[in-house]
Amino acid sequence: QVQLVESGGGLVQTGGSLRLSCAASERTFSTYTMGWSRQAPGKERESVAYITWSIGSAYYASSVKGRFTISRDNAKNSVYLQMNSLQPEDTAVYYCNAVGPSEYWGQGTQVTVSS
What is the overall mean pLDDT for the chain? Predict the structure, then answer.
């Protein structure tokens, strides 16, 4: 069964940093566009960043551009989200997803930024 497993969430103070990791269970994901989305309480899920598989082009939501960096390691079937200068409004459950012939989602990891 295909799985995406996120890790690295937690509680951090305003201005702090966290690095999220997402490990895919199959090498197939090296050909998928990988991304991170988040969902805060009472809000819709929003795309935060994604990275293509071919040349690794990265795209960011305007709310995180300049603070978050997405990267991937195809040899490890993994994608990462480095989050710096975290703000309380970044508090959400963060989900990893993979888009290719099919689309897959992880279970999510909680990120809480205290003010």
Answer: 93
